[in-house]
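#onboarding

Welcome to the new folks! Below is a worked example of what a typical request in this channel looks like: someone posts a single protein sequence, and someone else replies with the predicted structure as tokens. Don't worry about understanding the tokens yet, we'll cover that in week two.

Example request:
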Amino acid sequence: MFSDRTRLTYVTTAAVGVGTAVFFIWWWWNRKQKPQPPSKWRKVGELSDMVVYPVKSLGPVRMTEMECTTLGLKSGWLRDRTLLVIDLEGRFLTGRQLPKMVNVSPSISGSVLTLRAPGMMLVSVDLAQLRGKGFRVAVWGQAVPARDCGEEVARWLSRYLLQEDTGLRLVYYPLERPVRQVRQRNHNVFPLEQPVDMGAYPDETSYSLINAASVADLNSRLDEPVTPQQFRMNFVVKGATAYEEDKWDWVKIGNVIMRNVRPCTRCIFTTIDPETGTKHANTEPLKTLKSYRQINDPQIRPSVGDSPVMGIHLGLRGPNGMVRLGDSIYVGIPEEEAPSVTSPS
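Example response:
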């Protein structure tokens, strides 16, 4: 096992090394974990991009500085995935069903959300003025609090996405803390995931990170390269070796302490071009990812199916704090790997 771990430190692009790295996740994940952050850290890279998606499945907003909170990245009224498009039965919709959603560009000025899309007049809604009665919407089978954003934006979204006057609503998360539980299928599979990590409306957790070197390795296998934006993650790290994020445990961005709570399994959404809103004819890059980044552990496989791994989900494990582009990214050094120091007598 020691030789495997040593090899993983250096082998990054060879397929056999990558396959071993994916296997290593599950060996590492089931070790006995210590709840406290480590005392020693090593730098693995820098924060090269920071992205929020104020409306789930709509376009991105890039930022240079944001606050990390239990609900996710925040800058005033701009928060990650705290708005959601639903159908008239209260079920959430994403770009999986409506790829054109990625063509809608959101922006927030003060408390006013503005949406723009090709061929459409812009539409705005003041989130601070929402006074409607709260209700609950269904997100992956869980009832989550929501507040409706009004008729004008509902009609605008319905016309752009459905070519109908009705059919869709936009809702806003009205709380400052997560209330969702960990999805039942993940309880025993990813034991580090906690309810406090669930955020407002993300699929899994409040924070996600992808490694630029891992995307570069993926691109070496593709005919048409993709960018990190294809994976809709919050943080992009540069300077790390490909796929080493698989085995990170404690992660620190600047002074904000987080924990790698589970790998990020990928779905059909990765095949939607973030610039055009069209699906790739050959289901790339998902098809290629499935060829070398699948999970074969028999205890994990029933939960994730044939979804491949790319990136990691993080949970905030320290106080709120600011993160900025260019911040150093560190990982904790386990005590058994840290050099021992003898105190002078």
